[in-house]
Design brief:
It contains nine helices and two strands. The protein is mainly α.
Length: 193
């Protein structure tokens, strides 16, 4: 298992059993399922720069800004300071939306099932439609086209806008009302022009 480097081992049933036997009793690391690349590096960087959650949710640190200038200063500084925390709040809202929408879970299962079938078929031979070989990108586009009606019926569009709206409200209100540290407010002093 340790000798496998590429993402091709993720869908190999033999390695799944081997991995399941070796993972018992150890911490399961979900990002290990992601192939090496920019997405995994970005996620690792977010995990490394996350601020303490106790500081993030400390109720004594919330207060009304005195004026519009302080509100803007808080928004800019808190979004910069708690950026990684806000990413995980966004991901949590996505998970909440998926859990509370069974039809959306079914639509995602159809899409990932179609992708898995395409993956298995491309391991054997290229898919030929009307005498033409389809590239892998075209095959995944076909999977998206097949699953689009399921996403439409599940209300995926409204779920996306709900997640975006809820994220803006939660992050915006936290950033606006979370007070800055005494040293943080000095960093944003502007000189008169």
């Amino acid at each position: 298992m340790a000798s496998k480097v590429g993402p091709e081992h993720l869908f190999n049933p033999g390695t799944e059993v081997e991995a399941a036997g070796s993972v018992l009793g150890t911490k399961i690391n979900i990002p290990a399922l992601l192939p090496q690349g920019p997405a995994k590096e970005w996620l690792e960087q977010r995990k490394a720069t996350i601020r303490p959650w106790a500081n993030f949710v400390d109720q004594r640190r919330f207060g009304k800004p005195r004026n519009f200038g302080e509100l803007c200063k808080r928004l800019v500084r808190n979004v910069e300071y708690f950026q990684s925390n806000y990413v995980f709040v966004f991901l949590g809202l996505i998970v909440y939306c998926l859990i509370t929408s069974p039809l959306l879970l079914i639509a995602l299962a159809v899409f990932f099932g179609a992708c898995y079938i395409i993956y298995l078929k491309t391991q054997q031979s290229q898919l030929v439609v009307f005498g033409r070989e389809l590239s892998t990108a075209h095959q995944y586009g076909l999977a998206g086209g097949i699953s689009f009606p399921f996403f439409w019926l599940a209300g995926a569009g409204s779920a996306v806008f709900w997640v975006l709206g809820a994220t803006l409200v939660v992050i915006g209100s936290h950033a606006a009302f979370h007070e800055l540290e005494s040293g943080e407010s000095d960093e944003l002093q502007m000189e008169p022009v």
